[in-house]
Amino acid sequence: MTTLAEQHDAILKTLRDGLPQLATVEAYSPGDAIDTPAALLELEVIEEDPGENDGSDRVPLRCTWTVHCVLSTRTPNVQREIRAMAAQILGMIRRQRWGGLPVRPPEQIQGGPGEISQGPHGYESWYLTWEQVLYLGDDVWLGDPPEIDTVYISAQGDEYEENDV
After folding, report:
1. What domains are there in the chain, each with its CATH number?
2. Contact 138, 58 (CB under 8 A)
3. Who's near 56: CB < 8 A, 6+ residues apart?
4. What phi and psi values does residue 123 have, to the nearest 5 degrees?
């Protein structure tokens, strides 16, 4: 079974493994104190994607994910460094299937300046956002195979007798 939690965890694992220099890689939770550099993951939109059908009977969900890249304002060259961090994460995201999950490649990847907070504990941030279709649920073809049976396929209106074949 595929779940949103599996994709969420797989994205965080990819970020942690790919960027070990990050002090914090977690779900976005406003108001929490965090150590920087940080990447905070947020699922912003979930909608059924009726145009997607992979033949598995799983529900296609179009998810909009955001990673908030955060650096302390005490970071030297913080404006340059936050953009470099965002670009590096974008490079990691662009073709991700998150360890083989049943998802389509990311689409509509974009980023830009995020929230800024001044003061002694201030920060600079950039966001990266993308859409990705996740096939939620069990694949009907992964369980027990259907029973074997004989059928006769013909053009509409044609009928075959068993001894005609």
Report:
1. 4-139 (3.30.70.1700)
2. yes
3. 102, 135, 139, 140, 141
4. -150, 160
Please give the structure tokens belonging to residue 16.
């942690």
Distance CA 39, CA 18 (A): 12
Long-range contacts of residues 83-92, Cβ cutoff 8 Å, at least 24 apart: 83/126, 85/37, 85/126, 86/111, 86/126, 86/127, 86/128, 87/111, 88/19, 89/15, 89/19, 89/39, 89/128, 90/128, 92/14, 92/15, 92/18, 92/19
pLDDT in tens, 116-147: 898 888 999 999 999 999 988 776 555 565 67
pTM of the predicted model as reported, rounded to 2 decimal places: 0.80
Find, among 89, 80, 78, 72, the residue nearest to 35 by Cα.
72
Judging by DSSP bridges, how do beta strands 38-48 and 24-27 pair with one another? parallel
d(CA 157, CA 155): 6
Task: Say how many C-beta atoms besides its own lie within 10 A of residue 137's C-beta.
Answer: 16
Q: Degrees (nearest 5) of the Cα angle 123, 35, 113?
A: 30
